[in-house]
Structures are given as C-alpha cells and as structure tokens.
Design a protein that fits this description.
By secondary structure, the chain is α/β, with parallel strands linked by helices. The protein has one domain: Aminopeptidase (3-Layer(aba) Sandwich). About 50% of the residues lie in helices and about 15% in strands. The strands form 2 sheets. Strands 4-1-5-8-6-7 form a 6-stranded mixed sheet. A two-stranded antiparallel ribbon has the order 2-3. Strand 2 and strand 3 form a beta hairpin. The longest helix has 22 residues. It is globular. About 40% of the residues are buried.
C-alpha cells in the first residue's frame, strides 16, 4: 500500500508541474526486450512422430502382442535416432495412454474421433515440415507381410511415401509400392506432408517376430530415418 501511495504521489507531481522524466537507457532496453518477448511464435519442429493407438485402444493384436506397444517402441527409437542426426522431432505419445483422454474441446461421444482430432490438433499447434504416423498392419490371410506406406493426394506426401517405402523395402527385402490413403482422417485433415507407415503385419509370424524384436525395431527405425533424410535431400 505504501508503495502504491508513493507512486501515486509522484504521478500527481508530474501532472501538476507538467513534465515527465526522460526514459533512461536501461528503461528503453527493458521496453525493447519486453516487446520482443511479446512476439511469441509457435514451437516448431521438423518431424512429428504420430504414435498410433495407446491406452484403451490397443490397435491390432495377436494374442498378448499389441500394436500400441510396437508403435511406441519403434517411435522411441526413431525419435532418438532423428535427434542424434540433427533432425528435430517430437512424439505425440511417450507412454501407454490414449490421446482421446486429453481432448476436452471436441464435443463428440466418439472416443475414436476425439483421438484422431487430438492428433491433428498437435500439427496445428506445432509447426512442422512433415508427419509420420506409425502403425502395424493385420490381415485374415496370415501369409501377407511387409511394409506399406500410405500418402496424401499431394506431390510432397507421395515423394515422402516413396522414399520411406524404398527404405523399408530394402530393410525387409520386399517389393511393395506406396498407396494413396484417401479414406484416412489424418491424411485428409493434416496440411503438411504426412504419411501412415504400416511397418509390417502382426498377423504374419515372420513380421511379428521382427516387430517385437528390439534389434529389428531399431532396424525399422533406421530405415524410416533414412527415408526421411532422403526425402529432405530430394525435396529441399
């Protein structure tokens, strides 16, 4: 209270005598620094790693083997690998939880829609060059195997998909081609170049052994990182 009275008295004195003190150099510096601090910018990264499923949503499964766990394991390795190579990256899930639980703004009863919209929201809040969404495939035909990369109906996304598919084909000795993922929500609603990577088939014994082996998971992450670097080199 005393401090407020003193400040009020000084202000009244200035008003009566018709003058104001000149701003000191330090005051001007502080003012400039304050202005700079107000020019907030959104955080920015190069790669958003969308870790598929999580929490109550286990994704595809085979016995006790769950897609959500494979996605997180590979994503964690990919994150560290990209960062070590000087490529800024973030993960939208770092543990076993559902992103739908964090969504308090989408007024819908559908947990699945809340989950997807929460994933898209991150791409709007954080500037990024591209998004890779990690998943595991499944099929009734247990002989189906190999990676599949789905892309948007846009040139840069298709280029990213081809680079990733090529790297994963070499890693897994397959000959698959990327495909247009038109029905998928993320690929339709995210603006930046984005892809969905189906890293293999959990329903195939050979792929499942690869997907659950930490050393092989590291190989998958290495192939994805290689594809991203190849894309950046060609696109930029």
């Amino acid at each position: 209270m005393y401090r407020l009275l003193v400040i009020g008295f000084i202000a009244l004195t200035y008003a009566i005598w018709g003058y104001a003190p000149a701003a000191s150099a330090s005051q001007e510096d502080r003012s400039e620094r304050y202005d700079e601090e107000q020019n907030w910018t959104l955080p920015h990264t190069t790669v958003i790693i969308d870790v598929g499923h999580g929490g109550i949503d286990g994704g595809a499964s085979h016995g006790s083997t769950l897609e959500k766990d494979i996605n997180l394991a590979v994503a964690s390795k990919l994150y560290l690998m990209l960062r070590s190579q000087g490529i800024p990256a973030i993960m939208n899930r770092t543990g076993d939880y559902a992103l739908s639980e964090e969504n308090r703004w989408h007024n819908t009863r559908s947990r699945h829609r809340k989950d997807l919209s929460q994933r898209r929201q991150l791409t709007e809040e954080i500037g990024s060059e591209l998004l890779v969404s990690l998943h595991v495939n499944a099929a009734r035909n247990s002989t189906k195997r190999g990676p599949l990369v789905l892309h948007q109906n846009a040139g840069e996304s298709a280029l990213l998909a081809f680079c990733l598919q090529d790297a994963l084909n070499r890693q897994q000795a397959t000959l698959g081609l990327p495909r247009l993922g038109e029905p998928f929500y993320l690929l339709r609603r995210v603006d930046q170049p984005s892809v969905i990577i189906e890293m293999g088939f959990i329903s195939n014994a050979e792929d499942r052994a690869m997907l659950t082996n930490p050393a092989k998971q590291n190989e998958i992450a290495h192939a994805i990182a290689s594809g991203i670097r190849q894309y950046k080199w060609v696109a930029h």
